[in-house]
């Protein structure tokens, strides 16, 4: 392992249920009802990609960027008002990797300003050398684009990178990029198929970086 790459939603912050609730509420305003089970398949995808699907299917008079901004504004307000904390064990893991001089990056489907907001809110922005948003890429997870770009930005071969993911789409993206993938079975991320991952952990504290 020469680099460690984190997904953000469902890995650093337990935000998947919040994304789910907020996106579905925005869709419901437009008379589009989506069940939790139906929505789980979109976990890990960029919100612009998700909104693009529903905009095209329902001929909505918005752009994906407009709806994504509404979603992120609502999410930021919720995080601040409810004092949302990092996922248990994630800060010590980041600190341990940093202490071993392992380059760290975030490869998230969230917009870059949301990634920056979250890392600053949790006081961990100084640990990361690279922050990459999937919204800046033509193909969202499960395509490998975001992980290939992150490895390129780190100047480290994908085969020397470890990725931490909580979703089916994310784990497929990491593996398709040629990385070693740790699947985090976060129950709040829905019933995700993490079979693409090399290993699956139920708690962040189960990750032993000395074995990577």
From TrEMBL:
Coiled coil: none annotated. Pfam families: HAD_2 (PF13419). It is an enzyme of class 3 (hydrolase). CDD domains: HAD_BPGM-like. One of its GO terms (molecular function) is hydrolase activity. Keywords: Hydrolase. Its EC number is 3.1.3.-. It comes from the Bacteria. Gene3D superfamilies: HAD superfamily/HAD-like, Putative phosphatase, domain 2. PANTHER family: 2-DEOXYGLUCOSE-6-PHOSPHATE PHOSPHATASE 2, PSEUDOURIDINE-5'-PHOSPHATASE. This is Phosphatase YniC. The gene is yniC.
């Amino acid at each position: 392992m020469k680099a460690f790459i984190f997904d953000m939603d469902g890995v650093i912050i337990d935000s998947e249920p919040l994304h789910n609730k907020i996106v579905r509420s925005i869709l419901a305003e437009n008379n589009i009802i989506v069940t939790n089970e139906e929505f789980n398949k979109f976990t890990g995808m960029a919100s612009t990609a998700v909104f693009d699907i529903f905009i095209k299917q329902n001929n909505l008079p918005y752009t994906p960027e407009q709806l994504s901004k509404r979603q992120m504004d609502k999410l930021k307000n919720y995080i601040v008002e409810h004092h949302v904390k990092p996922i248990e064990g994630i800060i010590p893991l980041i600190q341990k990797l940093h202490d071993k001089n392992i380059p760290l990056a975030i490869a998230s489907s969230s917009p870059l300003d949301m990634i920056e907001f979250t890392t600053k809110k949790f006081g961990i922005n100084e640990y990361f050398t690279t922050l990459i948003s999937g919204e800046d890429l033509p193909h969202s997870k499960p395509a490998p684009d975001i992980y290939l770009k992150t490895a390129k930005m780190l100047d480290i071969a994908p085969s020397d990178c470890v990725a931490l993911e909580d979703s089916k789409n994310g784990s497929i993206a990491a593996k398709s990029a040629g990385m070693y993938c740790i699947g985090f079975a976060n129950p709040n991320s829905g019933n995700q198929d993490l079979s693409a991952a090399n290993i699956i952990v139920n708690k962040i504290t189960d990750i032993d970086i000395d074995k990577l």
